[in-house]
Each structure stands twice: as C-alpha cells, then as structure tokens.
Specification:
It contains 23 helices and 21 strands. The chain is an alpha+beta fold. The protein has five domains: 101 residues, Phosphorylase Kinase, domain 1 (2-Layer Sandwich); 172 residues, Orthogonal Bundle (Transferase(Phosphotransferase), domain 1), CATH 1.10.510.10; 184 residues, Nucleotide cyclase, GGDEF domain (Alpha-Beta Plaits); 73 residues; 81 residues, no CATH class.
Length: 664
C-alpha cells in the first residue's frame, strides 16, 4: 500500500524544500510528499500527539526563494506585492478550510506562520491514489463508481458553499482510504469565488491538462462551480472509458473527443450517468451544470441502460436539488415498503430486497427526480415525495401490483408529515422526522399486498379527490409497540384512473370569486411554502378550482397544515398579505365548521352531528364543537367520525367510553 497523501507533482526545487529532520513548532519534517506551483507538502511527525501529519508550506516558486536561515522571501522587488498577496490569501483560506468537517475532504487541523511564510497542517491520510487503487478493480460497475462519486460531490458542494473553488481536481488528488472511502486532497490551487481577477497572475497557470477547463488557463476566464465540475467529470470520464480527456483548448473549435455516452458501457452505467459526464465536460462553460446539485441529480437518476442492465440500490437526488445542508424541515408524503421474508434466511432476505429495489426503481421512474428522494434503510425502502402527494399512492399501487405478479409479498404504508434530509456518516442522504417514522409504523400494520395510509395523508387526498371516501376504507385506530395510536385507512383496490376521474374539480366547480387573482394565488403559494415546503405549489393550484372566494381558499389551505401553530401562522400571514382582516379564533372555528357541515351534510345527518357533539363534550369540553365539525368535513360516515374523534382523547378508558356511548 502506498502511504503518501497525494500523487507526486512535478518535483519541487530542491533548494526550496526544507531538509528532513527540520523542526517546525512541534512538527518534525520527515520527507517531501510533493510540490506544485506555489507550495510544498511534507510528511511530518507531530511530537506532541505522536502521529503523522501532512504540512503544506506556502512557497510560490516563481515569486520566492529560501535564504540561508530557511526563511522564504520574494525573489525581487517586483515579486513583493504578489508574494504578500498570496501569503495573505493562503492564511485566509487555511482558516476557512479548517472549518470544513466532511469525510470527503481532507481535514485541515491548524495553520501558523514561521520562516516569513505560512503553513497548513492537515490530517495524514493513509491509502492509495485513485489511479493506483483502481489497479485490479477494473472494469468498474455503477455501484462502485457511485460509492466514490457521491461523497466527493458532497464534499465539493461544501467547498463551493463556503465560497471556494478547488481548481485542481484530478485522479492524483483523490485518495482511497484503507476502508475504501474517498477523500479529496491538495487545496494548493484553491481560491475564493470572489477573488479579484487582477491578482491572479501567480495562480492561473496552475492547471492539469485534460482535467482543467479552458477558462482556467487565462486570467479573465469566468470560473465558478462549473469549473470544478468539468475537472470532476473528467475524472469520471477516465474511470468509465479508460481514456484521459482531451485538453480543453483542443476542443474549443472542433470537439473530437468521443463522448462518454458513445464509448462508455451503457448497460453498466446507464445512459443518464454517461450523459451527465458529457454535460459537465462541455468546453463551453455556459452549457455545463451550474452547481453540484444539478450534476448530482443527473448522475444519480435511475439508470436507463440496455437490456440486462442491473439497477443499483434505490438512491435519488435530494428534492429540488437541495444539498443535505441546505434542506430544511418540510412536509412530505412518505411511502415505506418492505418485503415479507424468513427472518432466519439472510440469503432469501437479500434476494427479495433486491427484487423490491428493482421494482421500486421502476415504479418511481415516472415521477420527476426533482420531487422525490428514495433511500434504502435496514427496515426497508422509503420514498419521500415533495410534489404531488398522490405520487406516493400511485407508486404504492403500482409496486403492489408488480410484486403480486412476481409472487413477492410486500408491506406498504404511507404517511404525510414533517421530514428533513440529512447526510449519514458515509455522506449519503437519509430521511429523518416524524413523516418517515410514522410511515414505517403504518407499514408494519399492513397485510401483504395491502396499502395502508395514515389519517394525515388521507385528509390531503380527500382534499384533492372528491371521491376519496369511495377509494379508501377506514380501519380505525391501531396502537404500535410504543403506545402511539394511528388512525388508518386502507386503499380498497379501485382503479386509480377511476378515482382520479371521480375527483375532477371541473365537476360542480364553484364560480371563482373576483378576489382570487393570479397575484393572490402566488402570494398564497409563497406563504404556504414557508410552512410546508415544495408541496405548497400543487396544493394551491389544485385547491383554487374548488373555492369561490379568497378567504375560503386560505381557510382550506390552512386546514392542510397538520400542526396548529404553523396553521394559525399561515392564516394570519396570508390574510394580512391579501389585505383581508385577520380572523379571530372564534371566527376561524365558525368558518371551519361551516365548511365541514356543508361537506358532511350529505353523509352524516345534522341531528347525528349534534348528538355526537354532546357526547364528545363530556370528555373534551367546549372544544368538542370545533373538533366535531372539523372531523365531519372529512369523515365518510358516522363510524369514521367517531373513531377520528376518539383519537383526540389521551386515555384509553375515555376512548372506549366515548365509542360505547356513540353506539360503536
């Protein structure tokens, strides 16, 4: 195993390098690891912590020399300004790089000044340069390639988010640790995005032919995240084709380089990934992906290879191109699925899970990658949808049908609730929050082939589809091992197209009020998005045809927010933003009750509502009226209403007594 921390650079001037055994603070230098345009990297021993580190010294060889005292000084009076500017920048960037804590980026431990120059101390990564590590491992498969690409892209995104470019991504600066994880090294060419181009004279020439884009060769080139993505795609091109990319300038007038999609193995990598490589390798910087999220989304899209292509584990880009650090908590529809398999037969479990992954990949293919995130967990597969919530139901039904046709028993559960995207220790994406936790628990109650949904999800579907009550059957409350009750509905197996037709909002559509203007719709969408996230757009657009006035629109949208606090905040902000008087709590209850009564009047007689309200008031007090009217709006019968009301009671004895008094 090669235990250096980076591939050899062009050999540093021996007169510039410090000798072996030289002591810098608590560090004793052992040997030179490499050198570049303005720095030398040493292997050193930390005498305090008794461990090895890598130390980069600022020594711009075109501007500096080392005198007899080992101090680094400008070569001439003309070099002073450039040398001092570079030194200042080296210190500023060392400070910024020291703040990065990402497994895909080499860790900067500290920085200091000595010998009239500056030093950056980094973790010493044992392993092999990528090109050495690949020996004996070629040809690569898609899973291995993505296991290398994913953490590096996430690390590169962290660099860009902090305002830096790496500017020297190449196989020699990617190391594979002993545990098989990749790390990006050598930030000697890094620069801030906002760096004054007029000060770049000492840095623009630091390029690696084949991996550096054309804009990096000259001072006035427009550099940005797309610059690093060109180099990164060049590394991927080399990995999937075995050929080095043609130098950028040779491709500007006439691009004779064979595209990755033309010479790469489509059956192995998928056409989408190969096209993504070609996209980022476009000689014209304006035609490349603008940020890591764009490139990641294209790379990780489900493969569309030829016959016999093997699908990878279900992994999709983050919703709307968000990075893990950018994603905030939002409302999502979460589908959780798992297979029924013998607990004592690990081989059978793995085989059935692999089949489930393949079928789920096919089921989610019609859903835009920017509106869903699919992940594997040890408990099963989960998909979070942030666009149309009905996509979760469509996927579940299609997945259930596909599994049944192959004789595979699958559990399926859907919930709607708060979720957050976060990275796991390996730099991959995972879904956190009550939205996925409840979806998993709902799934555990399902019979093989049965699609169960939580009440929160059912209420939104009923809002979107007028005949949702005919498409679902209420199962009632179920208690999980953690003593948490779930009000469940089961999909009754009717055709999805028929259900959609029954919910056509054009049927008995109310006359739209003059106050529902495009500006009012945009405002409602913007404010709702602050509380529930990307799903707001489709909910607003599909609610508008169902209402006759702006206040009714805002009230209906408020009813879709699960938690009371954000619901009230949305209504207040939306009313104020539309120039409408804010509703008092009592007025909101009346408005909600009126809506509920109108919706439920054909299903539950008013006399029954009054009776149930009186019984429920024994347990809930004055809030009974509000809750009864609200639950009646979505209930498809008396039993559904009573079981929904019972879920608001904390004690088992109260639930049992209320249901008994109600006649259930």
């Amino acid at each position: 195993m090669n235990d250096t921390t980076q591939a050899p650079h062009e050999g540093p001037d021996e007169q510039l390098a410090l000798p072996a055994g030289y002591v810098l603070n608590e560090y004793r230098l052992e040997r030179v690891l490499g050198g570049g345009g303005f720095g030398i990297t040493y292997l050193a021993h930390d005498t305090h912590l008794d461990c090895r580190v890598a130390i980069k010294e600022y020594v711009p060889k075109d501007l500096a020399l080392r005198d007899g005292s080992c101090a680094v000084r400008p070569r001439s009076a003309r070099s002073v300004k450039g040398f001092e500017w570079g030194l200042k920048r080296f210190l500023l960037e060392s400070r910024a790089l020291a703040s990065f804590h990402h497994p895909g980026i080499v860790r900067v431990l500290r920085y200091f000044q000595a010998n009239e120059t500056a030093y950056m101390v980094m973790e010493y990564e044992t392993g092999e340069p990528l090109h050495h590590w690949l020996v004996g491992r070629l040809p690569l498969d898609r899973a291995t390639l993505l296991n290398i690409v994913r953490p590096l892209l996430d690390g590169l995104e962290a660099i860009h988010r902090a305002g830096f470019l790496h500017r020297d991504i190449k196989p020699g600066n990617i190391y594979m640790r002993a545990d098989g994880t990749p790390v990006l090294l050598d930030f000697g060419s890094a620069r801030r995005l906002e760096t004054d181009e007029g000060q770049e004279q000492a840095l623009t020439a630091v390029v690696t032919p084949g991996f550096a884009p054309a804009e990096q060769y000259h001072r006035h080139g427009k550099q940005g995240p797309w610059t690093d993505l060109y180099a990164f795609a060049g590394v991927m091109y080399w990995m999937v084709t075995g050929k080095l990319p043609v130098e950028a300038f040779a491709r500007l007038r006439e691009d004779g380089m064979p595209p990755a999609a033309g010479i790469g193995n489509v059956d192995v990598f998928g056409l989408g990934l190969l096209n993504a490589i070609d996209w980022a390798l476009n000689p014209d910087e304006s035609k490349r992906p603008r940020q890591v999220a764009d490139f990641r989304r294209a790379c990780l899209a489900p493969p569309t290879g030829g016959e016999g292509a093997v699908d990878p584990p279900v992994e999709a880009p983050l919703p709307l191109g968000l990075s893990a650090s950018e994603a905030r908590t939002f409302i999502g529809a979460v589908l959780f699925a798992d297979v029924v398999s013998p607990a004592d037969d690990l081989a059978a479990q793995a085989e059935r899970r692999s089949r489930l992954v393949r079928m789920l990949s096919q089921a989610i293919a019609p859903v835009p990658p920017t509106t869903r995130l699919a992940v594997n967990t040890k408990e099963g597969c989960a998909v979070c949808y942030v666009g149309d919530p009905e996509d979760a139901l469509r996927t579940a039904v299609h997945l259930g049908d596909a599994a049944a046709s192959e004789g595979l028993d699958v559990h399926l559960g859907i919930n709607l609730g708060p979720v957050r995207i976060a990275p796991d220790p390996n730099g991959r994406s995972r879904i956190l929050g009550d939205g996925i936790t409840t979806a998993f628990r709902v799934m555990r109650f399902s019979e093989p082939g049965q699609v169960l949904v939580a009440r929160a999800y059912y209420e939104v579907i009923q809002h979107l589809k007028r005949n949702a009550g005919e498409c679902f059957r209420h199962l009632g409350l179920r208690r999980d091992p953690l003593a948490r009750d779930h009000d469940l509905y089961v999909w009754n197996g009717e055709n999805l197209a028929a259900c959609a037709a029954g919910g056509d909002p054009s049927l008995s559509r109310p006359a739209a009020g003059a106050d529902i203007t495009p500006a009012a719709i945009d405002s409602a969408e913007r404010i709702l998005a602050q509380h529930i996230g990307p799903m707001a757009r489709i909910l607003v657009r599909r609610t508008v045809p169902r209402v006759a006035s702006l206040p009714e629109l805002l009230q209906r949208l408020a009813d879709l927010i699960p938690d009371p606090a954000p619901r009230s905040a949305f209504l207040s902000s939306a009313m104020a933003g539309s120039g409408l008087p804010s509703l008092s709590p009592s007025s909101r209850s009346v408005a909600s009750s009126a809506t509920g009564t109108a919706t439920a009047s054909g299903l539950i007689p008013e006399a029954e509502l009054a009776r149930i309200e009186k019984l429920f008031a024994r347990h809930m007090g004055p809030m009974a009226k509000v809750l009864v009217r609200r639950e009646a709006r979505t209930a498809n019968g008396l039993e559904t209403l009573c079981r929904a009301l019972a879920s608001h009671l904390d004690k088992d004895v109260e639930r049992v007594r209320f249901l008994k008094d109600a006649g259930l």
